[in-house]
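User: Fold this; tokens only.

Assistant: Input:
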Amino acid sequence: MKFVVQKVKNANVKVEDKIVGEIKKGFMVLIGVKQDDTISEADYLVNKLINLRVFEDENQKMNLSLKDVNGELLLISQFTLYGDCKNGNRPSFSEAARPDKANELYEYIVQKCKEKVPKVETGIFGANMQVGLVNDGPVTIIMEK
């Protein structure tokens, strides 16, 4: 399982030119699920995400977590995080989980985040989405389990 976490001033996701998810200060997270991923890996990464200390404290040190700053989450499923480009120029997605399993774990992650964060927005699983964001810092962290 892989999370690409971007600290944002704001972010949104559109489907067919309509905003389906939008946040202010917080994290925009791209979520990739592999074939053999489990709920325990999801739990581990959700906990890491919620407690990731990359927001500035009063001394401008990255020392505060999402919950410390009342941050928001925008969660977007993205199977292409498991694109393998080792052979040729067209990526292979053979490591990515099948859509039914990926969606099940993605929805589980969304639910777990909603239990811990007041505002959680999402894209639409499997849809063609356009993501807009203002990366703050810039700060981008890749988390894997």
